[in-house]
Design a protein that fits this description.
- This protein is mainly alpha-helical and 96 residues long.
- The chain has one domain.
- Helix 1 packs antiparallel against helix 2.
- Helix content is 77%, strand content 0%.
Length: 96
């Protein structure tokens, strides 16, 4: 089950990485009247969008704790959950 989950996460991440690039390629393939796209502008846009997608995907993986490999950190979402749980427990103890 764990292996299936890892494979599914990997496929989803690859899809999220290349979906914006695919949409950008569709935009550059549209024929607008009076607008000419150059090869240089396409590759610049491709690099920027791919780089931004990679950074955002890494950030999402880091925050949610779904990075591949051994867990050497606690996900930020788990840290926030534990922190809020401790605050609520303190408030309950003070009210009694």
């Amino acid at each position: 089950m764990e292996r299936l989950t890892r494979v599914t996460l990997l496929v989803a991440k690859v899809t999220m990485l290349f979906m914006p690039v695919s949409l950008m390629t569709g935009y550059f393939s549209i024929q607008f009247s009076g607008v000419e796209f150059s090869l240089k502008s396409y590759w610049i846009a491709f690099g920027l969008i791919l780089g931004l997608s990679f950074v955002l995907l890494w950030l999402f993986s880091f925050v949610s704790g779904t990075m591949e490999g051994k867990m050497i950190y606690r996900p930020l979402s788990r840290i926030a959950y534990d922190f809020s749980k401790r605050i609520l427990l303190r408030q309950k103890k003070k009210s009694f």
